[in-house]
Design a protein that fits this description.
The structure is a single chain. By secondary structure, this protein is mainly α. It has one domain. It has helices at residues 6-21, 26-43, 45-59, 62-78, 88-98, 102-138. Helix 1 packs antiparallel against helix 4 (62-78), helix 1 packs across helix 6 and helix 2 (26-43) crosses helix 3. It is globular, with a radius of gyration of 16 Å. The protein starts with 5 loop residues before the first helix and ends with a helix.
Length: 140
Amino acid sequence: MSWRNLDLESAAAAGRIVSALGKVKKQELEGLCTSAGTVLAENGPYAMFLYLWSRSRDKGDRTSEALRKELYSHVCQAVQWNAGSNSGEAMLQSLAKMSEDFNRLLLMRKVLSQALSYLRYHAKAIAEESAGKRKETVAP
């Protein structure tokens, strides 16, 4: 049996997610990660994914949609689950099945929490980096 560093995998996944999102406002990403993290902490992974899915459907929020798909892929890989389709209904059914195993549910929660934390840090780093570039271009 080989051991995997899921914290490191969550950090790497956050970097991939930020890259996949492309140009997105720092406040939007940071706020979305904070909201999703709150839903995760209060109600669990199923509710968090449902929250992200509802945002993407109700508001046409592409960031929520991309975040939902990338986080789903990451958590399936982390808990060694066949991801299958990441479309809304199929994803929710798969999450419900994954959650039947209590140990897997706890692991999913931890992995998602770590990934969302790293995503917030990436959002802050991007904002600070772009602020630094603006200062460089403004200086005489």
